[in-house]
Amino acid sequence: MIKEWATVISWQKGEALLSCDVKASCSSCASRAGCGSRILNKLGPQTNHTLSVACDTPLVAGQKVELGIAEGSLIGSALLVYMSPLVGLFVVSALFQALFGTNLAAICGALIGGVGGFLIAREFSLKFSRRETWQPVILSVALPPNALRVETTTSADSQ
Fold first, then answer.
1. Which sequence ranges form a coiled-coil region, renumbered to this chain (predicted)?
2. Euclidean distance between the first and final Cα of the chain, in Å?
3. Residue 106 lies in a domain
């Protein structure tokens, strides 16, 4: 199970609207100064992802929840999204190269195959997204933001 914390935006009728922060791929690595991935993460937009998850427990805006998704569904969706355009690109490119014998035909076949693979991935991902095993679930719920209050006193207040 892959876990991530999210913040509740709203909860209505058993449906929680959650916001997940996008985290950089590396933030605690020892080689931060010379890391190309860290620089690329700084250049990109820092966005939040909003998703809707079924939840019977009433939630309060600002409350933290721990989400979980099965590894198998995450790996399956990654394979679908990345591999189908790639396979389409190579297969149709090779087919056009064999049929027409020119590099231009191979390039056109690669474009057609890549776009076709993307469209196939999009169609299958819509079907797979309806599966219950591919949906994130709420694993645990933190205290509401106003449930715990800590008071501190200074020495001047206690005299």
1. none
2. 53
3. yes
Q: What total of structural domains would you count in the chain?
A: 1
Residue 130 lies in a domain: yes
Contact by Cβ (8 Å): 57, 85: no
pLDDT tens profile 42-76: 666 666 788 899 888 899 999 999 999 989 888 98
Please state the pTM of the whole predicted model: 0.64
**Domain limits for position 117:** 2-25+41-141
Task: Report yes or no on 87 lying in a domain.
Answer: yes
Q: How many CA atoms lie within 13 A of 97 on its CB side?
A: 12
pLDDT of res. 31:
61
Q: Is residue 137 part of a domain?
A: yes
Which residue blocks in 47-102 are alpha helix, DSSP H? 71-100
Q: Is the dihedral of CA 125, 89, 86, 114 positive or negative?
A: negative
Picking from 23, 21, 22, 18, the residue whose alpha carbon sits closest to that of residue 7 is 18
- Which pLDDT value is given to residue 46? 61
Q: Are 68 and 135 in contact (CB under 8 A)?
A: no
Q: Quick one: pLDDT at residue 132?
A: 83
Alpha helices (runs of H) in the chain, residue ranges in sequence order: 36-43, 71-100, 103-128
